[in-house]
Amino acid sequence: MSESIENPSEKTFDHVAFLASVTEQPGVYRMYDKDQVVIYVGKAKKLKSRLSSYFRKDVGNNKTRVLVSQILAIDVTVTHTESEALILENNYIKKYQPKYNILLRDDKSYPYILLSDHKHPKLGSHRGSKKIKGEYFGPYSTVGAVWESLRLMQKLFPIRQCEDTYYRARSRPCLQYQLGRCSAPCVDKISDDDYQEQVNLAKLFLRGKNSVVIESLVEKMDSSSQQLEFEKAAKYRDQIATLRKVQQQQYVSGFVSELDVIGLYRDKSQVCIHTLYIRETKILGSKSFFPTVPLETSNEAIIQAFLVQHYIGTEVAERHIPKEFVIEQLLTDIDDVIDTLSKQAEFSVKISNNVRKERSQYLKLAQTNAKTALESRNSHKESVQARFQALNKLFELPKEITRLECFDISHTMGQQTVASCVVFDPEGPKKSEYRRYNVHGITPGDDYAAMDFALNKRYGKAVNSDSFPDIVFIDGGKGQLSRAENFFSELAVDSIPLLVGVAKGESRKPGLETLILAGSHQLINLPSNSPALHLIQHIRDESHRFAIAGHRAKRQKHAKTSTLESIPGVGAKKRQALLKYLGGMQEVIKADVDALMKVPGISQSLAQTIYEHVHQA
After folding, report:
1. For 201-207, which contacts have Cβ atoms below 8 Å and span 24 or more sequence positions?
2. What is the rounded CA–CA span in Å between residue 322 and residue 63?
3. Cys-Cys crosslink for 501: which of 107, 180, 481, 554, Cβ 3.0 to 4.6 Å?
């Protein structure tokens, strides 16, 4: 996410506002003091839950209380898994050397699998500096994962795992050869070419190109099943599952030595660009940017402008141009951009798109963080307050706006109609006061009547205007707004809230919405980068999401409910008899009254009731 979520110039850290915007995904967090020095780095399976624990009344010990008292800013980086968070945390600790981490954690390196550079290479674990010649695979989150991988490798590839001294001293094969876990190159039980072939397969497997091995195990599993050797087949099945689990590479530390990965996420007219900085095969930093862009700007144009402005700007001396950039979009003027960057860097620069494997995972991580950063920024207290101020300025109400409500209707061809009412205040969405209304007693598909129903449920029993919000937004055009005006005009209250319709533009694109004011029906079109419009879009989208979620739940419940359950006089036993005797619900629908009467326990009058009810439904 962003490098500084809180403003470092502020004297205190508003942890309530910060925690309101933090995700529950796994990731790593960095805590800064007043001098913007990292004082603590930590990881979490759920960032929000872990960070909330620092700001409880009882934090546990003095050391944590001292740490919390010095926090002035926190930033987070989201990862895909907890294992990735563990390794990224280690990278950050080594980079920043936070004083509170040094007291609490050791500085061990993460373990690798090493394939040595010998005539007959050895496969083993390694920890520490990479002085031994050979190929390193990893890192792994725990030593246990390395040993588990090595044990599996013994079963898959007969490559030696013994120490060199033991290997040189052999005059006959050891027990591993007898068990089929080593090809005994020490006593020439395998040719050099065949041994090297096994080594090459092991390399491919450790690099994630394990399709050959998996396919082989699948064939063995199928063969065992056909020969009715089910225990052996189950063993292969479990081995395949374990292999896939253990061999998941950690994409916060890989093989690419230097590149910047640029992820982009846009929501309506808002854009976030998140950059991951990989140096010496590890993520050593990240930062989010929130550029202001015209509404019709393409993603390609945004990335191209970012590359030029960020890396070839007035502060270029402070920018480090990497050897490679990873982006998702193919740029139209990519050759010109590459040439400009290469001249600035004084070495050849590469821009990669349509990437796979490790680079693809880095790009996915950058895009995940871009999305999280933008969502966090939108829900952040300061951002919401700024939008409320913009809304105050737009409508110029006699008193400051402190509460907004928005209504929306959702149904499928008039069925399972649900209305939603969502509430916002200057702190953001107030989800505890959201309400859904199951609409009934109206003509199916009549959105105007559904809006009347929802408004009556929410405000029908009001005796004064104290419980009203400052503004009521209606998701719809002049028709829905007029129904809302008629409803409030019939209420016996002193004053009513400002009513505003939110109509989609001609192309229904975000940013082209038209606001319709009650009374005059004046049309207002705000620029796509207007904070007031962003707030209106947010509450409108939230009401839409809340209504759809309720409608889908109601529709799913209805789909799981048999039509027979609502028929008077038809209990569980008679439903079972109908379905069993006639052969299913479709046959019940096709059956006439005479056929229904043949079902045990069904009288003529009940058969007539069932027939009428089913065909009405």
Report:
1. 201/157, 202/115, 202/123, 202/153, 202/156, 202/157, 202/159, 203/115, 203/135, 205/153, 205/156, 205/157, 205/247, 206/113, 206/115, 206/137, 206/247, 207/137
2. 39
3. 481
Question: What H or E segment, with its residue span, contains residue 406?
Answer: strand 404-412
**3-state class of 76 per DSSP?**
strand
Helix (H, G, I), strand (E, B) or coil at 229: coil
For the stretch 421-430, pLDDT in tens is 999 988 788 8
What is the distance between the alpha carbons of residues 258 and 46, in angstroms, rounded to a whole number?
Answer: 29
Distance CA 232, CA 536 (A): 61
Terminal-to-terminal C-alpha distance of the chain: 52
pLDDT in tens, 1-13: 333 444 434 457 8
Q: Which domains does the chain have, with CATH numbers?
A: 15-104 (3.40.1440.10), 112-210 (no CATH), 258-378 (3.30.420), 384-558 (3.30.420.340), 563-616 (1.10.150.20)
pLDDT of 222-258, one tens digit each? 888 888 888 878 866 775 765 565 444 444 455 566 8
Reported as half-sphere exposure (CB side, CA atoms, 13 A), residue 472 has a value of 27
pLDDT for 437-462, tens place per residue? 998 888 888 889 999 999 999 988 87
> Residue length, the chain?
617
> What's the half-sphere exposure (Cβ side, CA atoms, 13 Å) at 242?
17
Closest to 381 (Cα-Cα) out of 17, 75, 23, 22: 17
